[in-house]
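Lay summary. Proteins are chains of building blocks that fold into shapes, and those shapes determine what they do. In this project we predict the shape from the chain. Here is one chain we studied, written as its sequence of building blocks.
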Amino acid sequence: MSTKRHSDPDALAEAIIAEVGRRIVLALPLGLGKANHVANALYARAEADRSIDLTILTALTLEKPRGSGDLENRFIDPVIDRLFGDYPDLAYAAALREGRLPPNVAVNEFFLMAGRWLGVEHVQQNYVPANYTHAGDFALQRGINVVAQLVAKRPGSDKSYSLSCNTDLTLDLLRQRAAGRADFMMVGQVNGDLPYMPGEAEVDASQFSFALDSAETHFSLFAPPKQPVALADYAAGLHIARLVPDGGTLQIGIGSIGDAMVQALILRHRQTHAFRDMLKHLGGPGTSEDHGDPFERGLYGASEMLVDSFLELASAGVLKREVDGALVHAAFFLGPKSFYRALREMPETERARLRMTGVSYVNQLHGDEEEKRRARVGARFVNNAMMVTLLGAVVSDGLEDGAVVSGVGGQYNFVAQAFALSDARAIIYVPATRKTKRATVSNIRWSYGHTTIPHHLRDIVVTEYGVADLRGKADAEAIAAMLQVADSRFQDELSRKAKQAGKLPRDHRIADAFRNNVPERIEHALGPARDAGLLPVFPFGTDFTETEQRLIPALKKLKDAQNSYRDLAGLALAGLRHKPSPADEACLERMQLVEAGNAMARFYRPLLKGALALTGPIKDNWP
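And here is the predicted shape, written in a compact code that computers can read:
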């Protein structure tokens, strides 16, 4: 089969309809790999012609960040222009947000951008809960007849494409098609910024019915900026880093806790004494497994997501244990611009050691099980959660009223692997507290009306205050361990509820050593290491300018104060008393608040000055 190449997405959409028919079940890869121009052209045809029945099956629809008010827009709009300038918005996403999706179009997702689709009824009603490894089968059951994916083209050749960032489900679907168990059309959109990943990611061009390839449809890859790493993240990252055995296997995810853990692993390897010293100052409960030595054999990665920090681990000599020539096996990637650039520019032999493969390989043991068991020794599968109950049930994807926050994704897959492998552990990180509009609340709960991981699969839970080892423990033992890593402001109430339920002895008492679980303790323990440069806010670089880095904590402080007249008054008073430094003036100029030309600007200028005064210079302004 020869690939028919197009330069015009509208003409391509017409060609797809002519071949497939007026009922289109379109599969778009998770995250980065969506063929945006193809999807938008098909959506436009369905919007204009109600006789076309279009169903879109996908996950993690990427949207440019949006501010929630005048001040946030002043900060985020220039960042969006700089980082996402020509990224084409997905038309169906805008229609969903505005409540104008045509009746002949449906969108089903199995994983959502965290918290971004709460309150959007079509998304909530058409969400499909699925383990990552089951999503491809669900798509086939729904009758997909078109798969449209962003691809890389081998330089100087039209005969080979790379699935690059999304081998995850596409490889598995192609295998099903090759076996005669599926029938769908492959459509590729070529993007010159997409790294050409070799190996299993390479697909012969003959597998594609159509390819969209033109300068007019090129766009910059979606590149979320790195998140700042707070001291609480570092505290948890340090605790996790001591749970990882030399010669082991690692699964990690995107975000500040992943960066914190990787920085801690690098410190353990390169500055072992400092690593141990920080853990000593942190204190907190731990486990019998306590690894603090440098990595001689090194780690191997088996992670559904290839995050940019794996490159940092490889550069530091931590990620060096190869399995069949691979340092890491992964199923998809998404990251900052520097990550994509590093992948494009590294020699292909080095890139080949970052093995992109199907999600069925990474996320489960079925298929080549013995080989996987030999490779995944000492596995530590690290995932985040929103809440954890005292009995060890994990809440990661939804709320108790049924609202979906994100999705199960691969979390259940990796927990199941941790119990199936003889020496593996599932590590769930949850921050001990979170701030709501009016208060600080505990993320450790007595009970909750939704569960992602049931309590009979409880394993290791980590907060900034320490490690709760729950596997194989009786309920009272598990509750006692969870109380030791809960914020001390909530320990008594949590203990009382457990005792009322008859699950904790009436005479149980939390040891004094775990009665000081408060943010100030983390600041006291790790502040010196931060000041010494060991725990930087952005350990692996950032796309934010120095002025923007200075603004982020100040804007957060201002946002936290917005529900308290007392706090706002305190910021305003601090602002009126504060004489801005040159760095502060740069911040006010960046936010267009130098000349307070309207009522809103006159309101925000003293508040922001006060927030800048209280957060201090960059090295001191992160909690």
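What the prediction tells us: The chain has three domains: 4-68+90-217, 231-520, 546-620.
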